[in-house]
Design a protein that fits this description.
The complex is a heterodimer. Helices cover about 55% and strands about 0% of the residues of chain A. Chain A contains 4 helices and no strands. In chain A, α1 packs antiparallel against α2. The longest helix of chain A is centred in the N-terminal third of the chain and has 19 residues. The radius of gyration of chain A is 19 Å and the shape is elongated. Chain A starts with a helix and ends with a helix. Chain B is mainly alpha-helical. Chain B has one domain. Chain B is about 65% helix and about 0% strand. Chain B is built from 7 helices and no strands. Chain B is globular, with a radius of gyration of 17 Å. The chains are: A mainly alpha, B mainly alpha. Chains A and B meet through α1 of A and α2, α4 and α6 of B.
Chain lengths: ~100, ~200
């Protein structure tokens, strides 16, 4: 997968998420992503465009016939990042910070 | 059919608000808002994802609570809310799939294939999404943004799984005031083809 196609796929996933969050209704976030996708489309090779055209609609979470977004395969992903307790460092630190307050 | 779908979606939306409220009060509310609350939400999310991915579908409603707690925790983790539009789309999806599976059943039997009920098909998609989101215990390879998409997908499939699962639940409504799995099943009943069997 080329970098340009990977970027387009990422934008597809953002689009799906934006539409899903707004129950399929139009939103400013969706418009911004669509603009970015239009630019990204211009950078794609013809065979990549042909592939995307063949797939049909992918980003309509409220359409039962629409495919879900394609998540990246392991080969193309960045380094693994586990789920974290965000903002939560450790029980000991939490106790110390309460005591300090 | 259109007005029936919309009415059912509105009732499900109201019902899920209660699920969120109960989850907030009973599960997440054991610690104050902040990082500790977020940690509890993540624990609930992972625990119920694991329970669901390790469980087989049944017709006794055993997956109802874990599925509801998963959906509540996942919505909270993503900062997302489910609205009438989500329920309306999910209902339509489940009803269409029930119809397609019912019409394909005879043909698939002729070639010796068991494709599974809508609940089975949605469970497969749901399991895949929670695996990709690294919630069921395996190693994750997605970055933060894509993990959130996977979690959004898990909610999306989870809502459909819940409805299809309810369609296969056969116990009658015992208390007219209760809004449990039997109530969801009662809501689904009139929308589904008469010959459908969800499990």
């Amino acid at each position: 997968m080329t970098r340009d196609l990977a970027h387009y796929r990422q934008l597809e996933r953002r689009l799906w998420m934006a539409r899903w969050r707004s129950e399929g209704r139009e939103s400013a976030e969706e418009d911004a992503i669509l603009d970015e996708m239009e630019d990204a489309w211009m950078n794609l090779a013809e065979d990549e465009r042909a592939l995307l055209r063949l797939e049909g609609p992918r980003c309509w979470p409220t359409e039962s016939s629409s495919l879900p977004p394609q998540l990246p395969g392991a080969l193309y992903s960045s380094r693994p990042t586990p789920w974290a307790y965000e903002g939560f460092r450790s029980p000991a630190e939490a106790i110390l910070s309460v005591e300090a307050a | 059919m259109e007005s029936e779908l919309m009415s059912a979606a509105e009732q499900l939306d109201d019902w899920f608000r209660r699920i969120l409220h109960v989850s907030d009060e009973s599960l997440f509310g054991i610690v104050p808002e902040g990082p500790h609350r977020d940690a509890v939400v993540l624990d609930v999310l992972k625990r119920n994802a694991r329970i669901l991915s390790q469980s087989e579908l049944d017709s006794e409603g055993k997956l109802y609570s874990p599925l509801c707690f998963f959906l509540a925790a996942a919505c909270r983790k993503l900062g997302a809310s489910l609205g009438v539009g989500h329920w309306r789309a999910a209902l339509e999806n489940v009803v269409h799939l029930q119809q397609r599976v019912a019409s394909a059943r005879a043909e698939s039997a002729m070639v010796g294939l068991e494709t599974g009920s809508p609940a089975v098909l949605f469970k497969q998609e749901f399991d895949e999404a929670i695996n990709q989101a690294a919630l069921a215990g395996g190693a994750g390879y997605l970055d933060r943004e894509d993990r959130q998409v996977a979690l959004g997908l898990a909610i999306n499939w989870g809502v459909r799984l819940l409805l299809a699962y309810a369609a296969g639940y056969s116990r009658p409504v015992n208390d007219a005031g209760r809004r449990d799995l039997a109530w969801v099943a009662g809501l689904m009943g009139p929308l589904l083809p008469a010959s459908s069997n969800s499990l």
